[in-house]
Amino acid sequence: MRRLLKTATIVAAFAWLGASQAADLNPAAITITLPKDLKWNTSKDGNSTAVLFGDPNKEGIYGVLTKWSPGHMSHPHFHPNDRFITVISGTWWVGTGTKWDPVLTKAVPAGSFVVHKGKEIHWDGAKDVECVLEIVGMGPATSTLVTETK
Prior knowledge:
By secondary structure, the chain is mainly β. It has a single domain, classed as Jelly Rolls. About 15% of the residues lie in helices and about 35% in strands. It is built from 1 helix and 11 strands, in the order αβββββββββββ. The longest helix has 21 residues, at about 1-20.
């Protein structure tokens, strides 16, 4: 029994050491940002953005997380380049064309992938729950408002 207990203790020690060494990752190989460490910037309309990589204000690839506040919808606009969007949580509501009417939007549930085509008119937002999106595109990430039709 003593021998079995001693063997079990040695195996447990090696397992513990192996587990602790597995957590020592090479920072040159991988970078991890925990949710609590994301730097969110809130706009005047109440939406928030956290830059994951790149700089959306400069030329080049960028990735951001965007939180749409419940009840907030953008108005018809377009972006100069394609944008690749994954709905992380909540329901995102999207519409196209110059006629702005939240009733005309299509629900896009969490887990969905959407491509906003460059220079094509769309509008979007959140209705009754917060929506979090991951957006990847080529900067600069500008929006051009379009005159709405009734």
